[in-house]
Amino acid sequence: MRKNHDAPDTEENLHHLLWDRRTWNQTPSSKALREFWYCRIYIPTTLHQRIHRLVTYIPPPSPVLCDETLIQLIQLERHDTLHQSDSIDKRIKILIFCLDTGKNGTIKALKEQLDAIEHF
């Protein structure tokens, strides 16, 4: 946990958009996607707690889809589409776009996370 010195009363936590760690770290592909810089963001502690209270789990897709998604994210990064300042909802929407292959439990859980953020 780090203190945001611009707003002294606001604490922030590092949030991984893809969790839980144990499940996502089971394959090198899903671990690499989870740890990609764009899939992590500091958010207010209260929002972090709300997300994890409302969405308990983000199931990883297949290792092949993880690899394809990471490649897409790297390409977007090279085209200067991804930025450190991007909001959490933009990051989730980009992940949904990259992962959207039809029936996918990861997409459903990411949309639930997005809903929790938008109603915060």
Description:
The chain is mainly alpha-helical. The chain has one domain (2-118). It contains 6 helices and 3 strands, in the order ββααβαααα. Strands 1-2-3 form a 3-stranded antiparallel β-sheet. Strand 1 (2-3) and strand 2 (11-16) form a beta hairpin. The longest helix is centred in the middle third of the chain and has 16 residues, at 63-78. It is globular and about 35 Å long. The two termini are 20 Å apart. Residues 1-9 have low confidence and may be disordered.
Distance between the termini: 20 Å
Percentage beta strand: 5-15%
Instruction: Calculate the mean pLDDT score and round it.
Output: 90
Question: How many domains, as an integer?
Answer: 1
Query: Which structural class should the secondary elements be placed in?
Result: mainly alpha
Order of strands side by side in the largest beta sheet?
1-2-3
Q: Number of DSSP strands?
A: 3
The multimeric state of the shown protein is single chain
- C-alpha geometry: globular
